[in-house]
Amino acid sequence: MSAIVKTVSAFMTVPMMIFGLYVILHGHLTPGGGFPGGAVMATAVAMLIAAFGLSQSDARKKDAFSLFESIGLLAFIAMAFVGLQSTFFANVLAGHGWIFGSSVSYGPNPGYLETGGVIPIMNFAVGIEVFAALSAVMLAIMLHRREKHD
Amino acid sequence: MAVLFYQHSAAFAVAVPLAAAFAVPLVAKLGKAARNAFVVLAVVFTQIMSWLMFQRSSAEGGFIYTLGASVPSLASPAGFPVRIVLHIDALSAFMAVISTTLAFVVSVYSFRYMKGRKSLDKYFALLLVMTAGMTGLVTTGDLFNMFVFLELLSVSSAGMIGYYGKGESAEAAFKYMTVSSIGALMVLFAAGMLYSQYNLLNIAGLADAIQFSFIDRIALVLLFAAFALKCGAVPMHMWVSDSYGEAPAPVSAFLVVASQAGLYALFRIAFTLFGGLSAAVMGWGMITLGMLSMFIGVTMAMFQKDIKRLMAYHAVSQTGYMLLGIGVGLAVLSSPVALETFGISAMEGGLFHVINHALYKGLLFLTAGAVIYRAGTRNLNNMSGLAHSMPVTTVLFIIGALSIAGLPPFNGFASKIVIYESVFMFNPLLSVIAMLVSILTLASFVKVFYSAFTGPADRSIKKAGEVPAVMWIPMGILAVLIIAFGLAPDTVMNLFVRPAVHALLNQAGYIGGVI
Amino acid sequence: MIDAQMLAVVALVTLGLSAVVFRKNMIKIVMGISVIGSGVNLFLVSMGYREGSTAPIFTASRNAWMSLPTPQALTLTSIVISLAVTALMLSFAVLFYEKYGSIDTTKRRLKQ
Asked: B68 vs A83: CB contact, 8 Å cut-off?
């Protein structure tokens, strides 16, 4: 790709990542959440692949993404297990005043970030997972043609 | 601690294999032995949870587990069920026990069979995801989550079918995925139709509210077709032979229980969700599917040269027996006298056949795997004299073959005789065809036995020898269970099958569990 | 009862099914499945719509008359699943292409 494409996509990566993080972080307040946010972040990776191409050494990056995929999913399930004192997936943090634990009064409000209990944390875990998984899928399909087959 | 497990058994049965699947790539960094031990530990734990579910559902007549509620039994905080509910009755727990038993056997067998293949971490991760998909599909009390778990099961199964990655297995996996995603989308469509009328997704709540309008009947047809497709009944059986044939042998054995999870969903839809509808039509539909599967499955199997494709067609044919048994029960559901005389026992035969089929078909696919492992070919024409070098596998194969053909004293006989007797009272012709199919099955397996195991031993095969103990011990476990079930069918029937049949018939109890 | 989105649902599902049944190109089959999925998703979302309602976001809504959030949650889940299905099927198509040099499903038989 030309120098213009490379430069612009390098610049655009940062705002795209930040927008993805914003969507993840506001997942409990507005439409969006872990999956759309993670997908936005993975789009940045897709753009970088399109602009800069791939080399054989990127196979190691695929493994790193797979690792983060596992970690994200495990974090999600671990948050669900935390609720086990009442039931699986129970929202133990909501309304307890601690992190993300503020309760909101009924009715329209400007949207308070520190609410939602375990939901923002789960959104974050899903965001990591989706970002890593989609990136790993793209890398896997694109690198596959270059690998030597047995 | 024990109370915790007892109370949360349903959540553990779904969540633990799922969590373990994601943890497998991390644990694998500690070494292969650690990974294998971890997989077995996760599967055994899931199986213990399934047993706990069975214990509890037998004792309490079914229970619900509401995800995210303050108390597990609080499904309807606002007067109607809105939450995601796991709904376990004896039938769900029965199916979960079968799937986890096979999961244990298959994972132990895979350690040696798949040794040396690349990306085994992903193989075992997918195996655990499949387990989670099955336990989820049989425990969910929610139509939408049924779709989710169905897709979870399909996607992981497709990954396993295409594991070898060569042309044919990629094609088989593609075919499987095409067929199952269309099936799953039909389930979603039907869920949308029901939701739009009743604002409910909970199966028990829907069964209570349903009016059997025209749209409901369309939804029924979609659900019925989708789940008949998932269990491989005949007009929709085209994926079965490819998938079972191209998958690694342990995966084929596991796919048998995966199709049975589809069978469970079919029964749940027919008996619980649409239980109030005039059941004769549905019952005859199920019987027709069963007869077609039985007959066409076995006739297609006669001509196969590939040992695994042959067994795949037999799996189609045996699914027919289960559909026949349950279908007869469904057809006479509205007449209590007929249900009492032969309907219930037909259903008992059908459900007993589910567990027996999982055992002997699992065993047969694993022996096929052992043969492929040593002989290096799937073509029956290229095998001969394997009995000289593989005596244990030969004995295990004979046990499986006699059991699938329905000869005493093996478990296939125990369930088939119940089906024959009760179906004969319903319609003699159906019973006669079922017996005929059994004879054809025997003929087909005699052919396999003669062409693969007897005759002069091929030199290269002779050198190969018996499969290692890690492979035949799991097969041996299945064989012991087959003989035990064949020798004491009444015990098994009373302990497992009867509670499951009564749970299936007890629609009011299922609805009452939630509302 | 019969309105524009229902017609669109029927059109999408029929289109997708015909692509799956009649096309031999694997990529087009995958596209067909995605189109069926879109049809079903459209059905779910339009079922949850209420005449004159706003998006079910509590913080932004001026009036309490919102469309149902559940079908939208279902749709989002179904989109996620269809993403996994599409990625998986495309990777199978890649593997198929490497063996047979074509993504035409009928070519396999000709080669044997």
From this structure: yes
Tokens matching residue A53: 């191409």
CA distance B283 to B280: 5
* % of residues, chain A, pLDDT over 70: 95
Chain A contact present for B72, CB below 8 A: yes
Residue C11 lies in a domain: yes
Contact A74 B26 (CB under 8 A): yes
On chain C, the residues whose CB falls within 8 A of the CB of A110 are 59
Q: Is A65 on the interface with C (CB under 8 A)?
A: no
Assigned domain for C20 exists: yes
- Report which residue type is found at B454: T
- CB contact under 8 Å between C91 and A140, yes or no, is yes
Q: Please provide the DSSP assignment of C2-39 as one string.
A: --HHHHHHHHHHHHHHHHHHH--BHHHHHHHHHHHHHH
Which token pair is B384? 């001969």
Query: Could you list the residue range(s) of the whole structural domain that residue B65 is in?
Result: 2-514
H/E segment holding residue B453: none
**The total number of structural domains that make up chain C:** 1
pTM of the prediction? 0.94
The domain segmentation of chain A, as residue ranges, is 3-144
In tens, the pLDDT along B11-35 reads 999 999 999 999 999 999 898 899 9
In CATH, what number is assigned to the domain containing residue C75?
1.10.287.3510
Chain A interface mutation, best of C45, C58, C81, highest count of A Cβ atoms under 10 Å: C58
**C100: in domain:** yes
Shortest alpha-carbon distance between residue B82 and chain C (Å): 10
Is C56 domain-assigned? Answer: no
Digit-coded pLDDT (tens) for B318-369? 999 999 999 999 998 888 888 888 889 999 999 999 999 999 999 999 999 9
